[in-house]
Design goal:
Structural class of chain A: mainly beta
Mean pLDDT of chain B: 79
Shape of chain B: elongated
Radius of gyration of chain B: 17 Å
CATH superfamily of the largest domain in chain A: TolB, C-terminal domain
Number of strands of chain B: 0
Structural class of chain B: mainly alpha
Distance between the termini of chain A: 65 Å
Low-confidence stretches of chain A: 31-35, 356-365
Helix content of chain B: over 70%
Strand content of chain A: 35-45%
Largest interface: A-B, 34 and 33 residues
Strand order of the largest sheet of chain A: 6-10-9-8-7
Oligomer: heterodimer
Strand content of chain B: under 5%
Shape of chain A: globular
Order of helices and strands of chain B: HHHHH
Number of helices of chain A: 3
Number of strands of chain A: 27
CATH class of the largest domain in chain A: Mainly Beta
């Protein structure tokens, strides 16, 4: 073979390799930073362990304590199902509380080890008790109404309520001091009004189980916020979706006394769960190059790293039969989901999910 | 002596036929399953941003090269092109295997069933075939033997 030919072959090889490598680097950049709304599905970020029948579809996730998952029940509010995720053992728990003359409307039980909280924002009241003892005692009453609440630590509750000042939905904290005084903190700057300040800012509250970081993900736009445990805004970030403006129609009835949605809204984010630096968001919105039929088989969950301000990857949470996951949570090595009357349990891939940087966080904050 | 000469004459043709089969097959299976192919490319970490035109470009390029092989004038060029393309494919595989957690395959047809190592071996063999092809068709062009 001639030297010239060899030279040509060498040049071709080098330039071919360069082209692909450059494309790779450019593409990586696009996907990570430019909101191209293209999802990436790595192989096996989660591994199915088992489906556990839990008899009723009225369970919701109450919380975790080590390998124990607690499920609350909407139809039997003081009943809890305890599931040991390792051994699959289940145990029924009945919470005892003295609730003289209180009519509950939307009672929810949430865990914050070593305590559990029983909360009803329409009364309003909050009870607290020790996990294992299951006797609940009154912790707060009549201080603040709220739509939704989640305990941050043993003396602090993260709430979503209507501010009496602005008449708009606001995030807040209910704190109980050592002298049992209740302190209400509202931060009206976090939720940003686009239409009416009530419907348009509606979203999902979430708390990282290990770090106590608070999260809020809008239903109707591609944005989420991360706050520290004192409700100070740390980050305001976008998801890979492209919908920045809320697309809902609100009608005012009875001289502005009651507002209702006129048309079915476009939901950008359906469910969310914060896990350390990661924020997992379920969305039915399809990106480029995604098959519509996939939504008949699975729910799409996008994983963001809010510390790194990046979209990491997506994975499918598969339906059972035709039923899709209606709530999911991550704890320790598990990803769990409630699907109809079953509990789906997955093991999470350490490589993909353990991007924890608690040390980094303390430095940055 | 005659036998070896005969083999020598046939080697470039064998290389040509192998490449035509490979490219026509790969391109056809991509077009037949075009939607899937595009989705796979879109999910590929290397080409996500360019999936739209790459998804058309690659199979068209494969067919074009296969076409070039049919004209003796362009056989050398076709071998160079195939050689470059195969090196690109191989680089692509190595890049996503090593530098990315996301490993989709979009080769089309049976080729999709190959494991990644097999894929690399397969590609290397074809790169070698292209090199052999270049060498022989060059000789043939020089001695005006090109007669496909």
């Amino acid at each position: 073979m001639k030297i010239k030919t060899l030279f040509i072959l060498l040049i071709l090889a080098v330039s071919s390799i360069t082209v692909v490598v450059v494309l790779f680097l450019l593409s990586e950049h696009e996907v990570h930073r430019n909101n191209a709304f293209v999802r990436r599905y790595p192989h096996h970020p989660i591994t199915k362990k088992y489906d556990l029948p839990i008899k009723y579809n009225s369970y919701y996730v109450s919380g975790f304590d080590n390998d124990i998952l607690y499920l609350g029940n909407n139809t039997a509010p003081l009943h809890l199902l305890e599931v040991n995720l390792k051994t699959k053992d289940t145990n029924h728990i009945q919470i005892r509380m003295k609730s003289k003359d209180l009519t509950f409307q939307s009672l929810k039980v949430k865990m914050q080890p070593p305590y559990f909280f029983i909360m009803d924002g329409s009364v309003p009241c909050i009870f607290r008790g020790k996990i294992g003892d299951w006797n609940a005692h009154l912790w707060m009453k009549d201080k603040a109404y709220f739509n939704k609440a989640m305990p941050v630590d043993s003396n602090k509750i993260y709430i979503n309520t209507i501010s009496s000042k602005t008449q708009m939905t606001t995030l807040g904290l209910i704190e109980r001091q050592e002298n049992e005084n209740i302190n209400i903190v509202l931060n009206t700057d976090i939720l940003e009004k686009q239409i009416d300040g009530v419907f348009d800012v509606d979203g999902i509250m979430t708390i990282s189980p290990n770090t106590g970081t608070l999260g809020y993900v809008y239903f109707y736009r591609n944005q989420f916020m991360v706050m520290d445990s004192n409700l100070k805004l740390i980050e305001r970030q976008h998801t890979i979706d492209t919908v920045q403006r809320v697309q809902i129609k609100v009608a005012n009835l009875n001289d502005n006394q009651i507002s209702k949605m006129k048309a079915p809204p476009m939901i950008v984010n359906k469910m969310a769960f914060m896990y350390n630096d990661l924020l997992l968001i379920n969305s039915d919105r399809l990106g480029k190059y995604e098959d519509e039929d996939m939504l008949k088989e699975a729910s799409i969950i996008d994983v963001y790293n809010w510390q790194k301000e990046s979209y990491e990857f997506s994975f499918y949470f598969y339906h059972i039969g035709k039923e899709s996951v209606k709530e999911f949570a991550v704890f320790n090595d598990y990803l769990i989901g409630l699907i109809d009357d079953k509990l789906s349990v997955y093991e999470i891939g350490k490589k993909q999910f353990n991007q924890v940087s608690i040390k980094q966080k303390t430095i940055r904050l | 002596m005659k036998a070896t000469r005969l083999i020598y004459q046939y080697i470039p043709n064998i290389c040509i036929v192998l490449y035509i089969i490979l490219f026509v097959y790969a391109a056809t299976s991509k077009f037949l399953d075009f939607y899937d192919f595009k989705v796979q490319l879109g999910q590929s970490p290397v080409l996500t941003a360019y999936a739209d035109w790459v998804s058309w470009g690659i199979p068209l390029l494969e067919l074009a090269i296969a076409g070039l092989f049919l004209f003796s004038k362009y056989v050398l060029l076709a071998f160079y092109a195939s050689y470059s393309l195969m090196i690109m494919f191989t680089t692509y595989i190595i890049v996503i295997l090593n530098f990315s957690d996301f490993i989709p395959c979009s080769c089309g047809g049976v080729l999709e069933k190959l494991s990644w190592t097999d894929h690399i071996i397969f590609n290397v063999i074809f790169i070698a075939i292209a090199v052999v092809g270049v060498k022989f068709s060059e000789n043939q062009l020089n001695s005006k033997f090109g007669n496909l």
